[in-house]
Amino acid sequence: MTRGLRCLLHGNVAAAFLFNPLLILAIFGMALYLVYSVVVTIAGLPRLRVEPIPEKTAFLIRIGVVVLIAANWTYLIVRERIFN
Where do the domains of the chain lie? Predict the structure, then answer.
């Protein structure tokens, strides 16, 4: 993660994505949320409300997050074995 963040801070998004794709996606997601919250606060707009989701959908989201983290972890292991 450190190498990916370092590449991102130096403006090399492609290299940062190759070091850790999930980190870069999370950082961009947080940046989008920050922009959204600043616009809503400054403009005085109503916030978006999320309706309660059904239990089955919540379970599928949890499974998706676990699969995404496992896929990222597998990618990092395979990438290190290939390049080292």
Answer: 1-49, 50-84
Question: How many angstroms separate the Cα of 34 from the Cα of each of 8, 11, 26, 27, 28?
Answer: 18, 20, 12, 10, 10
pLDDT in tens, 15-69: 888 888 998 999 999 999 999 999 999 999 999 888 999 999 999 999 999 999 9
Tokens at residue 21, please? 């794709």
**CA-atom Rg of the chain in angstroms:** 17
Q: How many whole angstroms separate alpha carbon 66 and alpha carbon 61?
A: 9
The structure tokens listed for 52 are 């309660």
* Largest distance between two CA atoms of the chain: 52
Q: Is the pLDDT of residue 84 over 70?
A: no
Supply the pTM of this predicted model.
0.74
